[in-house]
Amino acid sequence: MKKHDTPMLDELENGPWPSFISGIKRLRDTHPEKRINEMTNDLLGQLEHSYETRKGYWKGGTVSVYGYGGGIIPRFSEVGDAFPKSKEFHTLRVQPPAGNFYTTDILRKMADSWEKYGSGLVTFHGQTGNIMFIGSTSDATQHFFDEINEYGFDLGGAGPCVRTAMSCVGAGRCEMSNINEHKAHRLLVNNFIDDMHRPALPYKFKFKVSGCANDCMNSIERADMSIIGTWRDDIKIDQAEFKEYVGLKGRKHVIDNIVTRCPTNAISLNDDDSVTIDNQNCVKCMHCLNVVPKAFHPGDDKGATVLMGGKRTLKIGDLMGTVIVPFMKLESQEDWDKLVEIAEESIDFWADNALEHERCGEMIERIGLVNFLEGIGIEVDPNMVGNPRESSYFRGDGWDGEAVKWYERADAKDKDTA
Amino acid sequence: MAEVEVKKEKKQMRAPIETGAPDGFQYMHPTMRKNFGQWKWHDHPRPGVLRHAAKSGDEIWTVRAGTQRILDVFTLRTLCDIGDKFADGFVRFTIRSNIEYMLKDASRVEPLIEALEKEGFVVGGTKNSVAMISHTQGWLHCDIPGTDASGVVKAMMDELIDEFKNNDMPNRVHMTTSCCQINCGGQGDIAINIQHTKPPKINHDLVSNVCERPSVVARCPVAAIRPAMVNGKASLEVDEKKCICCGACFPPCPPMQINDPEHSKLAIWVGGNHSNARSKPTFQKLVAAGIPNNPPRWPEATAIVKRILSKYKEDAKDWERINDWIERIGWPRFFELTELPFTKYHIDNWRGGRKTLNSSTYIRF
Question: Which of B19, B66, B293 has the CB atom closest to A54's CB atom?
């Protein structure tokens, strides 16, 4: 095997950060399988060619496994004649366990399977959240999938379908957790497994689950349906711990870093170094909990806020998710069923009403939030808006009836809590 | 005969087991399983190390390390060997592709760190550090990349490694890179993304064979694409004045080549923040464009990122993310401090863009 010269890529072997180029070269130079040596050699050759010409040379196509329509990103080289051994270089998107937990045993098992069939390159994880097995021929994808599917791993989404979901470390390790993130993750995505494996939706649909408003999964920015843990009773305060913190850091530090950073001015530092929170105006932003995790804790009445419609620029511009459910409990079977039902109603309505290649948030932008809410059977709530309408042009034909509904709902709520 | 063969072929195909997302519980450290939902507090004994304490009194130690993200099986096995020898064989990966080792015995934390560093991994990335840059596939695998995000990230992390290993920033810095404006790398405190600056070059001979023209027309955000007959062939044309060079037409129609070795530039965006802490989540804003797409090490982009980081480090208050910092000091001061030019291209003219203008007398002198 003649090794391609890679003078530009070699530059990326310098410096202290671990080098992916060195890793690919290890496969080329030291892997016992000739197939892998040759494949990674040609991969390096094509990559060097891209660096020289500043252009990419992969094109898509159609590759899947038996019974599925998606889950694989097909890549065929446009310069395959020069680099024949890597001319088919597909990625298999594989769903990670909720919370991204692994044992070294299962990672080794995956490594063993992957080097039997693929290039030996893998990423934990891609930006949607998949394990990315990068570099497989068309023939090998089926064999690799069959093998890992036998020990519990399944393909993720690619194309216009429900995509692989993400959830944070959550209740597994984090005291900020307000829900069972991993249950929400698996319940939602596994309920739509047919919509994931057989792409037939208007465009992609992503679920992301974060256990608190720090939203480590970037769900408001990136997810079509975002589930974020929160609580609705009082924040828990360990006054002894708080006083110790004040003693350690000083009152000025506490005022500058905690009191004045509260977005709703809900924190008072008392003269005796204890703290008082105006709980009614606390928006559960998480800042004070982040600063003094030993003194502040989420309350007991935990649940989730659900937002919908987050996405990046293409096509109409960036959209954040919008609050659809201000608060719901996620404890009883009934609660969980309700969450799944909201997702089902939303995906059904979106599938029926979206234009081709239109994300859920874009559809909401086009038809208005109210039409979407009516479509999925959810009542309006002032928590859904930053502020009420500013434009004076509207028709209020049904105003009186809507006002009555509001009072009826308020009465029902009073009875509920009585 | 042929029919018989097809049947035989079908029989041999294995039906998939549609298990979906696996249960993470089976791979979770027993201490974490035992204390699931019962954690009390955490602290941060040193950069790269977290200690979580449960209500039961149990503790779990986490050591976080940065890797090259695109792992070869040898590297993956090395990471596993270290986990077996010094931790308890339980790991996870963060959203920014760092590996985390979880272990019960605090005395093994230092030997674990030593073993990781000996193998070239970088311990850090926790709290107020510059976290690992989350990034996209680039020339290694993407079909529409304007650059190689993996290479940009490697070159930048080489220079930012001390900021990853230490906690010298006012708050955490999440960076992202993307190889096109679709921005798969996502929002970041600092984002480095390719910016196309010229409309697509169309190969009219191929369009009618390769592209479904109505869906390409529909894909354009500014309605700049229309069907046209060119040289007697059904093709598409682009109103080049309207075109915003986003590249959205390229994936459904590869003959509309958007990638251009000369005119694809890097742009830098700041102030994207996913968290609700202190203020509502924010999208990133443009601060610099026209930066050369200069492999293999992209020094021009790295220099600007370092300049922004050093001013942020100097001037921001504790706990201010980059968006919080700029919100306090104002955009004019940001451009002054970072010595970046403010141009007409910084003023948003997209739909709803008027809301980003200053409609007040709030001006800092």
Answer: B293
